[in-house]
Amino acid sequence: MTPAPFYVVKCPDCSGEQTIFSRPVTPVNCSVCGATLATPTGGKAALRGELLRTASA
Ligand SMILES: [Zn+2]
């Protein structure tokens, strides 16, 4: 089994759900309110929002 490549994250500011890449190379912002959802670490994202589930492509 390979790890799921995407995370479904709940925005801490607007509670919107957004699917993001699990290993981003740039910070990921909420598409609704612009809050930071995840920041790159060189590996798996450091999530600021709540991880709801993982998703495959
Ligand atoms: Zn938001």
Q: Secondary-structure blueprint of this entry?
A:
Layout: E1 6-10, E2 17-21, E3 28-29, E4 36-39, E5 46-47, E6 50-55
Antiparallel strand pairs: 1-2, 1-6, 3-4, 4-5
This protein binds zinc ion.
Structural descriptors:
single chain; about 55 residues; mainly beta; N-terminal domain of TfIIb; three-stranded antiparallel β-sheet; globular
Written description of the protein model:
The chain has a three-stranded antiparallel beta sheet with strand order 2-1-6, with no helix packed on it. A three-stranded antiparallel beta sheet has the order 3-4-5, with no helix packed on it. It contains no helices and six strands. The protein has strands at residues 6-10, 17-21, 28-29, 36-39, 46-47, 50-55. The chain has 57 residues and is mostly beta strands. It starts with 5 loop residues before the first strand and ends with a strand. The protein binds zinc ion. The site of zinc ion has 8 residues, from loops.
CATH topology: N-terminal domain of TfIIb
Radius of gyration: 10 Å
CATH hierarchy, class: Mainly Beta
Q: Supply the helix-strand structural class.
A: mainly beta
Number of helices: 0
CATH architecture: Single Sheet
What fraction of residues sit in β-strands? Answer: 35-45%
Summed up:
The protein is mainly beta and 57 residues long.
